[in-house]
């Protein structure tokens, strides 16, 4: 098999990239020291996390000159995400750190006044308005396709500026900001999005780069309506995983977090096998797959956690982002060794996860944050993982439940007026944070939690709702609006989806960034494709499924 060299200079989910490369028929040779670079014919630099951290790692390890020499020699080079950013002169993220300076422009942070930052999800990489590319696809990019982005900093697009020096540029639009989604010149190809996480559309880009197929005829020109720009509505399939009473790892699903059968047997509901179901949802067009290990497998050594194997196997066939949650906290292993939350997250990232989700530990850390007078501790799971892997890699899973009150004065917590009054006609409620899978309520509200975790470096909120979980009655729109008003990081609406109309409703009536479903997919009542077809019929922009 032909080979490609991959530089693993910074932590991150390189397993998925290796899987994607192998999927298109190549094998990976690792670049483990600068001395390996000259042997590379084709070189890929992936990157996640902070611009400054990546660049200074490259510099410190002595990679900068060998990379420049590789590019100068005209050998194929591909940069992904921070690997693209490295080609620029610098970034607002770490103003004092220099980039390679191959592209004469700088990166800027997205404006969060009118949209969520980081920019997470599926967006365009459209070559149709840049020079000479009208009927050609640049390295397999298509104006109708969508690609997976996750970043807070981007290179703003200025028409003609790079093109005059021979660059070809593919653009994307986030809100009213147009930025560079991919860029190519001579032997260089770089993408701000993650092709290894962009389904069939992304695999096509990797294949075209590896085969040196810079431009290909597009065939029939798509209409402007087919090339809808901007971020799509993101639909996520969630798998709650635990061992059942027979010791098998199963996908389960409860009502208000009770996963036991109601037929008298009281066994754990078994809805299928995690890896098979993840693949099925990927093939139905899920934009992301989330695994929640709802019992954390407390009795097994951390390195043998079955979720690691699930991730390894799922990432071989699922080329969209994978999130893993459950048990991500500082812990003591079965042999007495202390293991940090960062170590656990690292194992997950190395096994194919793109994001980790933290539940109970985030509530405790947030309570302590307020107890210290809103001062950061520096050593919490959220802070350590986001500083090593970037805040986009840290999701906080929130398990709130409603507490009804007769008036806002009846509680010291932030309350809202609700359209669905409580059992005694109460017109107000506040959302209480819970830990341990909803079993323990805290004197802490969801607004306090989300604001604290945003300050601590979390990149996204997975907003469950115990009252709505498994109810098939639709999302808690009031909760979602309240949380969206409190933070600028993206929010994933979760709990209550029972039919495709509920997805349309949550996107139409709230500013949620994504919506997640579980039971309705697991029970086979609807497919992810049904949801996306419905959203499209309602005029919402969705990622077109590509086989
Ligand atoms: O606290 O960091 O160890 O993480 C534990 C994780 O496990 C948390 O993310 C917590 O939400 C989750 N969890 C714990 N117990 C349960 C349970 O169900 N007994 N599941 C549980 C949470 C909620 C959603 C669900 C949606 C959509 N599951 O993920 O999939 O509510 O369901 P629906 O569409 O069918 O209504 P830690």
CA-based gyration radius: 23 Å
Tell me the CATH topology of the largest domain: TIM Barrel
Percentage of residues in strands? 25-35%
Number of strands: 29
Distance between the termini: 24 Å
CATH architecture term of the largest domain: Alpha-Beta Barrel
| Poorly predicted runs of 5 or more residues | none
The CATH class of the largest domain turns out to be: Alpha Beta
Strand order of the largest sheet: 15-17-18-21-22-27-28-29
Q: Helix coverage percent of residues? A: 25-40%
Total number of domains: 2
Major β-sheet annotation: 8 strands, parallel, barrel
- Determine the oligomeric state from the structure: single chain
Shape: globular
CATH H-level superfamily title of the largest domain: Aldolase class I
Number of helices: 15
Give a brief rundown of this model.
The chain is an alpha/beta fold and 547 residues long. It is 26% helix and 25% strand. Helix 9 (360-371) packs across helix 11.
